[in-house]
Amino acid sequence: MPFTFDNSYTRLPQRFYSNQLPTPVVSPSVIKINHRLATQIGVNADRLSAEILAGNMIPEGAAPIATAYAGHQFGGWNPQLGDGRAILLGEVVGPDGVRRDIQLKGSGQTMFSRNGDGRATLGAVMREYLVSEAMAALGLPTTRALAVVTTGEQIMRDGYEPGAILTRVAQSHIRVGTFQYYYARKDYEALQLLADHVIARHYPKAAEADNPVRAMLDATIVRQAELVARWMLVGFIHGVMNTDNSAISGETIDYGPCAFMDTFHPETVFSSIDRQGRYAWNNQPEMAHWNMAQLAQALTPLLGENADTEAQEALGLFAPAFAKAFYRGFAAKLGVGEDTADLRELVTELMGVMAQGKVDFTLFFRHLTAGVGTGTFTNVKAMFTNPKQINAWLERWDAFSADAALMQNANPVFIPRNHRIEEVIKAANHGDLEPFERLHAILTLPYNEQPENAAYENAPMPEEVVQATFCGT
Ligand code: AMP
Ligand code: MG
Question: What is the pLDDT of residue 473?
Fold first, then answer.
């Protein structure tokens, strides 16, 4: 048996999900199995087969379901979304005691598919595999990728593309939109059951509080604020931070039109569907706060007599938690141990200098880190056509006596750059998986120097720049 399932979500009432088998595919073939992750989460990878990973064969103990949820998409309310192309096979509990969902994404239509075909393209699956695994290697909370299989079927998007299925692992797939679903239906009994489930699963300490739902809300808000701060510190732009793509566990979820920015600009947007810049790099905290406000609203029936006050107080935790995580993280990026008012000013000034100089975000900190070791900042200065401002900033920063070791652990050398991902997808669509394997291997050690892979540190050449990323659903 590959999985020892212990399914808790199916113990919730039937209105939380629909029983749904994956739709078999013509000719499944394994592209990748993440053996290291399998070991970590207590899955026997030797027993995983293309048939199982494609949903053609249901492993023992699985209870396949599509879960119900709602959500605000780009601010617009949708009372029913749900798993339209994903099936939760079941849950496993790892040797670390952590419970995790095993989900097949791209496994066929469900009652929530609306007009979608329930499938995923190989390109989108590879992007999610690479970026989510890179995030994990960078040390950020994220869903994981256990496997990729191709289906042997062609699916229609911009043209025909190979179909694939991702096996996704998450601490749960419960979203802000899951709470919204029951709140909107005024099904407060289900809302309470969901809150109890989330507390037991993700926030066990909250159970001991006087107001457990309030404690759960507080903890969720703090985790979300910290998550977004950490995204920003590595230059990550999620692209579709809708409430249905906002996980209650505090993990990054749903890698669609996401991207790591190359050239620094606070208002950077990649997603082709984000025309207003709603989810721009520097707008992410505001949007996460907005999402948390929707969660607080959905929980008001459970928050007690002074629900509105409780909700407002909880939301008040977001800004300080974000600022703390953001500036602490930035302090580390600059080799500074402490977050002080002076440090915050230094950071603000640096962001202005970086934006004006149009420098590559990751390379800037990489060169800065290397500079501390050698005592000269030639590579940093060379990034600017007019080095006057950066020289002034470097002088100011010098007073903070940066610690190189701190910087090395905070500034990645390798990130999943868009142009590299595009390269991987193009090759994979022609049957060449070597670029995928290579990029994946590099990204497993993102903070390490890898001289043989130095080309992967580079920013894209002008003709390689990816202007927009697509949902690729
Ligand atoms: P997203 O914003 O990509 O996370 O997806 C929003 C909603 O659309 C979710 O309910 C998905 O399950 C659904 N969806 C996305 N792509 C497809 C597809 N190809 N077929 C069916 N449903 C889909
Ligand atoms: Mg989604």
Answer: 57
96: annotated active-site residue: no
State whether 344 and 197 are in the same domain: yes
C-alpha 385 chain-centroid distance:
34
Paired with 88 in beta bridges are 65, 103
Ligand 2 centre distance from Cα of residue 134 (Å): 20
Looking at the structure of the chain, the number of domains it has is 2
- Residue 455 forms part of a structural domain: no
Q: How far is the CA of 369 from the centre of ligand 2 (A)?
A: 37
Place of tokens 């103990």: 61
Average pLDDT in the 380-406 region?
A: 96
The finding on whether 182 has its CB within 6 A of some atom of ligand 1 is no
User: Does the pLDDT value for residue 471 go beyond 80?
Assistant: no
Closest by CA position to 161, among listed 130, 122, 218, 215: 122
Residue nearest to atom 13 of ligand 1 (CA): 84
128 lines ligand 1 (CB under 6 A): no
Which structural domain range is residue 207 located in? 175-411
Least confident of 10-24, 275-289, 456-470: 456-470
Host H or E run for residue 237:
strand 236-237
Residues 163 and 187 in one domain: no
